[in-house]
Here is the input.
Amino acid sequence: MSITGEEGTYVSAALESGSKKAGEHAADIILNKALGLLQSLQGKIGIALGTAFKGYLENSVRRYNQVRTLATGMDVHSIIGDDSIYINTDLSFGEEHLSNYSAHSLTQIRYNLLIEGTGGIGKSMLMRYLFLNVAEDGKFIPVLLDLRKINNQEGKNLSIINLVYKCMEAFDVRLPREQFESSLREGIYLFLFDGLDEVKEVYLRDTAAAIQAFASKYPENPCIVTTRPIQEQLPLETFSVLEAIPLTKDQAVELAQKIGNGSEKAAEFCSQLDEGLYEKHKSFAENPLLLCMMYLTFMRNNSIPDHLAVFYKKSFDALYSLHDSSKDVFRREFHCKNLDEQRFKELFAYFCFHSYMKEEYEFAEDRLEFYLAKGCKKLGLEKVEIKNYIHDLQSSVCMLVKDGDTYRFSHRSFQAYFAAIYTIPLPDEDQKKLFFILLSRWRSNSNDYFYLLEEMDKCRFEKNALADGIREIYTNLSKTFCPDVELLKTLYSGLLTSGFDYKIDGVIPSKNEYAFNLISWFDVVYSHSYNDRENLLKKHHNQIAKLLFEACGSQRPYLNNTIYFSDLEEVAKAHKVDLSDYYKILALCFGFSKIYEDMHIWLTMLQSGEGTPQAESFIDSL
Here is the structure.
């Protein structure tokens, strides 16, 4: 099979392959079972739905059963079929480990589920599998919604129903809006909301609230949401949390075997993975995305680098070099002929930096061209044909994927890596301004960028991101009677508890986001104080609960299991209770005494720097 030309050619060629025909056969089986559910409904609504959903199920099942990965390039594989590349993502629910589960068995746990997992762990692939699995099971009609599309909604009225209906329309559902809303009350759907973490921060809480309202209004339809871990407490009260578990060695080897498709060098990679490579590079090998990148890197270099930044560099280099003539890979030609590799990466880094800072991960073509045109002007690359460059990003280096009318990153980790690459050459003063802006608003689930910067340019990162702020906080804390308690109150405004026993389930960050993020990153790069927090909280639980009970009595100062320090202190004052021991225990559990001591040690090793004022337009000028 020849693999050349635009994406449509790749898909057309794949549709003609024997493996693709096997995938189509699987889709036909699924379709027949799913339509059986609609036909079982009594009366006119069953007839109407059966007719309306035939095209939807045919199109969506075939679409979601087609998948490509970084390691397989433009070859299309299936999730269900003879050429399946899917490895089941294990999940944990409390103390229970779930491996051989189905969509139906998950809905038996709870009708509303939130699946959390790190980037690249396989959440989106899992949602596709659940879509196909529940259609095959025939107990629900599956609907898979990419939550990134919320970022494109106009106005302030966020509507989950509108998004769901538009998603189904895209697959040719022939059901009037009124009948669709009526069908929601029949309990025939399973709604799969993928990528809550990819919703812009400004829309995040509203989106979570809208999903909760939707699930509450139509409770007969199960809802499953996926996200990276988000520190912020979101209004998803009826959703139980499942955690995606990294790949075991056996699963990693199985996935590598599917990726390699029987080649001699791929067999060598699988053998080394089984004999020690998995343990040596476990942080890479247990993540499906990073494992694919490991495979590409090994195929080119016969080895795997130890550091994440070097790993991303070599992975990109491997993808970039796939156009070279080689017996093991097909030949790809770059359309953008007047850019060498270095300038190609510089333009991509500009695009990644600016889109990452604006929390944009999906792009209409005109928006993508807008970013690249600005980058060309900034970098003096006016002769670059932007459409050719977009083609190369998509087809030659596999950094972008086209999905309908929009482009998205093949994986956001590359966006974060190249955003960091763009940041490193910036002058110190520009870096200081940038880091102040970011630490004043940064989301905890967007930390890949900072991790990479800390690894690639540790000294400048510490100097330009942390030094001034840490120095100011340390100076202010040193003037207080109990610095570790003051640090606790600086970073947190209250606690989340499980209820009457005051078991601590979490903390509420203060409104001082800059201090919170600054100390958090100081702890990441230097202090490492939080490793045993959970065990310490368990150890001191009875003492904490006793102190809180004495302070509150019958006047419990919390709403929805939330205790704010300010409310607690008012009640304690009225009851003439001293809370100093309570705060000292909490500060101990959160490691704040160690952080304060480490600040002093760390500051003595750094040169002083000047703080700088900020402007919101500053990022755009970089």
